[in-house]
Amino acid sequence: MRLPGAGLAKGLAVTMRTMTKRSVTDQYPDVKPELPPRSRGVIALLEENCTVCMLCARECPDWCIYIDSHKETIPAPEGGRERQRNVLDRFAIDFSLCMYCGICIEACPFDALFWSPEFEYAEFDIRNMTHEKERLGQWMSTVPPPPAVDGRAERPKELDAARKAMEKAAAPAAPPAAPVEAAE
Amino acid sequence: MVTERIVGMGAGADLVDDGGRIATQDMVLNIGPQHPSTHGVLRLRITLDGERIVDAEPIVGYMHRGAEKLFEVRDYRQIIVLANRHDWLSAFANELGVVLAAERMLGMDVPVRAVWARTLLAELNRVLNHLMFLGSYPIELGAITPIFYAFRERETLQAVMEEISGGRMHYMFNRVGGLKEDLPAGWLGRARRAVTDVRSRLPDLDRLVMGNEIFLARTKGVGIISPEMVAAYGVSGPIARASGVDFDLRRDEPYLAYGELPVTVVTRTDGDCLSRFQCLFEQLQVSLDLADACLDRLGSLPPGPINTRLPKVLKVPEGATYAWTENPLGINGYYLVSKGDKTPWRLKLRSASFNNIQVLGELLPGALIADMVAILGSMFFVVGDIDK
Predict the structure, then answer these.
(1) What domains are there in chain B, each with its CATH number?
(2) Which residues of chain B lie closer than 8 angstroms to A151, CB-CB?
């Protein structure tokens, strides 16, 4: 026969024991959280890399990226012909609509968009949630380098491609038997 | 016109009807769509005879977002964004169904490391989901403390989930053909430590609620679902298993790597609120064991890719398939019909909570209004999953 209230007492014992331990509460505004590099906080724009291809704006599931641009003609150099290039006038992300899926960053073929773990950009006015390209550019300084991946991961294709290119470039200069000594 | 209704003892107790009983009328009581005892915007129209419920009708749709229609105008990567949002507590499992359906139609082989990583993340997601309900259900019955313990464990696991996927709720980590990125270096060790920590602290949660006399009094023998009701309403998940329905897709129709894992199916026979809660708690332990088994396996797999190179425009061949998965809350199915476009022609979503909640219409009549809270909470639903 169990004592009446034994279960209650058992629960209270847990509470008592927990009281003697350090609390796990984050002291947030005083102590900033340590966020992992992959954390999806805000999207940063590296304007120089953007070619106004519009892939991000088209792939965005809720169309919260606004891009304006115009074409500029580069005058013909000696013996050449004139070329046209796109100039970015406006690049804005409306973070009040953004679903933080990261498809724009994945879709960008020129590495112009990056995730940053920064998250403190709440606003009193929803219109201020639209970050123009200047503000998006400022986030670039907060973008962390990507974390190293697990040892069992596949080698990035870029590494193999780069090595192949190096070997190809080195091949006519030196006989293929002695590249190791050359490196030393 | 104002009609005075006498709904119980009190002012009208001196009025007597023809049979000599106190003359009372039934009262229609709306619980929700905004009511503190409901989670979110589920509305229940309850007819009361005094304290006793004579009729109950769950009215759903206040949070309908048209997910199925939105799927039809989005490509498969964009669908993952939407699909992980209908049941925000099992985002990873929701993503999984979509990519499994697309991969089956494409006849795509998923790299073995991706299969095991997906299984691991699905189990961690299940633990997160169950911890939420293990914390919130006692709150509804007046016990505030357990949620702090549950959230401490959730935070431990969310840290590893955030490290790998970048998200705390909407992981957006599945892609057709694998996962978005490879595991960060050292992540397996940190994930293992998180699983061990959570497991070591589970007895706290157990001692806090499981033996509590008040909790037992509120839940034992309350809201009994029979196996027949389970079958009639298509109830699934821990709720169905608490009624003795021994059905779990992880064992009965294995997907991912579950075929190679010893999946213990947790069942109870009573079918009351308490057994539903106990089922959830025991499933938590099973999921932690499965996560450990996945971690062991991931640590011994040969090096290899974690995703498949996809064409720029991914088109799923013409045809149809039904992919169902054992989500934390029950069976979650996607019926994918493709006409060979880059968007599905139709993507029907069968969500667990929608079916689970329908049984309330039969379950609540006969119960007391105070038990309604206990029963509603023990149905473990997410309103987004009901309304889609």
Answers:
(1) 67-387 (1.10.645.10)
(2) 185, 303
Does the structure show a pLDDT above 70 at A175?
A: no
Tokens 């309350």 locate to: B222
Spatial contact of B220 and B212, defined as CB atoms under 8 Å apart: no
* Cβ–Cβ < 8 Å for B325, B332: yes
Of B149, B251, B163, nearest to B206 by C-alpha is B149
The pLDDT tens digits of the residues spanning A1-22 come to 567 788 888 888 888 998 898 8
Query: Counting Cβ atoms within 10 Å, is residue A25 exposed (0-12), middle (13-18) or buried (19+)?
Result: exposed
Segments in chain B forming alpha helices (H): 67-71, 76-83, 91-106, 112-140, 146-165, 187-205, 213-219, 227-233, 238-242, 249-252, 273-300, 352-358, 360-363, 369-378, 383-387
Cα gap B364→B360, rounded to integer Å: 6
Torsion of CA B364, B368, B278, A1, to 10 degrees: -150
B interface mutation test: which of A39, A60, A152 has the most B CBs within 10 A?
A152
**Structural Rg of chain B based on CA atoms:** 23
For residue A91, the domain's CATH number is 3.30.70.3270
Q: A129: domain range?
A: 39-142
Q: Distance between CA A140 and CA A128 in Å, rounded?
A: 19
Torsion from C-alpha of A53, A59, A62, A68, nearest 10 degrees: 0
Hey, what amino acid is at A34? E
- Each residue of B144-153: pLDDT tens digit? 889 999 999 9
Nearest CA-CA distance, residue B360 and chain A, Å: 30
CB contact under 8 A, B163 and A101: no
User: What is the C-alpha to C-alpha distance for residues B382 and B373, in angstroms, rounded to an integer?
Assistant: 15
- How far apart CA B98 and CA B323 sit, in angstroms, is 8
CB contact under 8 A, B185 and A99: no
> What's the pLDDT tens digit per position in B253-311?
888 889 888 888 999 888 899 999 999 999 999 999 999 999 998 888 888 888 888 88
∠ CA(B278), CA(B280), CA(B281), 5° rounding?
65
CA dist., res. B115 & res. A58, Å (int): 30
Q: Are B161 and B128 in contact (CB under 8 A)?
A: yes
**Tally of CA atoms within 13 A in the half-sphere of A40 that contains its CB:** 23
Residue A113 lies in a domain: yes
- Token look-up 């609620």 returns B209
The ipTM value here is 0.77
Q: What are phi and psi of B81, to 5 degrees?
A: -60, -45
Contacts of A70 (CB under 8 A, 6+ apart): A86, A87, A89
Collapsed DSSP state (helix, strand, coil) of residue B46: strand
Domain count for chain A, please give it.
1
